[in-house]
Amino acid sequence: MIGLILAMLNEPPALSAMLSDVSESRLRATVEKLASYPTRNTLSTGLTDSCEWIADEFRKIPGVEVEVMRYVAPAGRRVPEDKEVVQVIATIPGETDRIYLMGGHIDSLNLQVQPTEVPAPGANDDASGVAASLEACRILARQKWPCTLKFVAFSGEEQGLLGSTALAKRAVDEEWQLEGVLSNDTVGSSGNIAGQSNTKQVRVFSEEGDAHNSRELARVIEWTVRNTVPNFDIKLVLRRDRFGRGGDHTPFVQQNFNAVRFIEVHEEFTRQHTPDDRVEFMDFAYLAQVTRANVSALASLANSGVAPTNVRIVRDQGHNTTVTWEATAGIKYTLYWRDTGSTEWQGAIPVGEVSRHTVDLINKDDHFFAVGAEGGIPVVAE
Ligand SMILES: [Zn+2]
Questions:
Q1: Does 8 or 52 have the greater pLDDT score?
Q2: What is the pLDDT of residue 76?
Q3: Do residues 324 and 330 lie in contact, with contact meaning Cβ atoms separated by under 8 Å?
Q4: Is cis: bond before 21, omega within 30 of 0?
Q5: Which of 121, 157, 176, 292 is most exposed, with the fewest beta carbons within 10 Å of its own?
Q6: Do residues 58 and 204 share a domain?
């Protein structure tokens, strides 16, 4: 078992082939199907029906295990009384129980009138994130990974993050080794009606905390995408979510998991939660690029070994910086650095199976350093 894991770590998967397999037409077909339900409001039959449909789509992928998870949406904001509802979890079992999770919310909302009875196509918010998750699963399921990968179609998002809250609690109760959550919510349009457009970036929101490493998850996603996905990169946003808004990553952060949110750069607010959230306003070439960013990030994370511990900067005075850490046999490491004024890693060097490395002429006064298992979430050196 251990030997197999190490062998796989030493053989990088053919990432460029996976990225070129991301299909705009499959993404469009998924979004069109989901948007064809009159509504996917969490309290409607459209939610149950669309969950059954997406579960069947995941079941068509060889090697994928599918669960329709039931939980109670408690009475509260936008929920008149307690109601049992469903959401869908698809799993690619890995060689270990370390887990990375990607998801989008399948439920939609029309805020204008009686919410369960009026059209709510929810094409961009958030059939786009569900379609990206299904497509990423199709591509990543073609090989075995050291880590387990889960793909979730959350429900109850629009009623107050109910499905993600239920799953985050379950992950704690069942002691999941959940190392990272990539929530994709509203990722299928590159421009707004004011004429602003950005086809080259997707925003990744992350917050800092003492008990989780979400910001470092965001930073390594940015580094990975910048170096692997042609003509596309990540715009890091250093806050929990957009001003006054929320998303399915946050309940995971609140349970001390590393979790971030992907969202397009220029949202069109007037179409959200209205009958105008339609397929024709989307950009599937853009959604394909966002999907590639997720596939690349997940491939890197899922292929990584366990993170190093006790990562330290040696307290000498000099122009070079030496970093030490506790290594695990057979794992290769990467050392990163950035100027304290930069939000992104500016350099990285693969250092191999060692527990110490000296970077010449980059000083520890003006720079942060971190060490990660190759492709994994780095640990900041102290
Ligand atoms: Zn949403």
A1: 52
A2: 87
A3: no
A4: no
A5: 176
A6: yes
Q: What is the per-residue pLDDT across 165-175, written as a single tens digit (0 to 9) for each?
A: 999 999 999 99
Q: Ligand 1 centroid vs 366 CA: distance in angstroms?
A: 39
In the chain, the amino acid numbered 181 is: V
- Residue 55 dihedral angles phi and psi, to the nearest 5°: -60, -40
The side-by-side arrangement of strands in the sheet containing 259-263 is 65-73, 83-92, 148-154, 98-105, 177-184, 259-263, 201-205, 233-237
CA of residue 158 to ligand 1 center, whole Å:
7
Tell me how many degrees the CA angle 26-28-29 measures, rounded to the nearest 5.
65
CA 276–ligand 1 middle distance (angstroms): 14
Q: Which of 350, 375, 355 is nearest to 309 (CA)?
A: 355
Residues 296 and 316 placed together within one structural domain of the fold: no
Residues 278 and 341 in one domain: no
Note down the domain range covering 340: 309-380
Residue 182 sits in the same domain as residue 86? yes
323 alpha carbon – ligand 1 mean position (Å): 41
User: pLDDT category, 116, cuts 50, 70, 90?
Assistant: low
Based on the fold, state whether residues 193 and 328 are members of the same structural domain: no
- The single residue listed with the structure tokens 């070439």 is 285
At 260-273, the pLDDT tens digits run 999 999 999 999 99
Residue 250 has pLDDT above 70, yes or no: yes
Q: What is the pTM of this model?
A: 0.95
How many angstroms is it from 16 CA to the middle of ligand 1?
30
Tokens of 338: 């950035």
Residues for the chain: how many in total? 382
* DSSP-H helix ranges across the chain: 2-9, 15-21, 24-35, 45-59, 128-140, 162-173, 214-228, 250-254, 284-302
- Residue 306 and residue 309: Cα distance in Å, rounded? 9
Q: How far is the CA of 223 from the centre of ligand 1 (A)?
A: 26
> What percent of the chain is predicted at pLDDT more than 90?
93
Question: Same domain, yes or no, for 265 and 357?
Answer: no
Overall average pLDDT of the 36-51 stretch = 96
Same domain, 236 and 317: no
Cβ-in-10-Å burial (0-12, 13-18, 19+) of 316 comes to: exposed
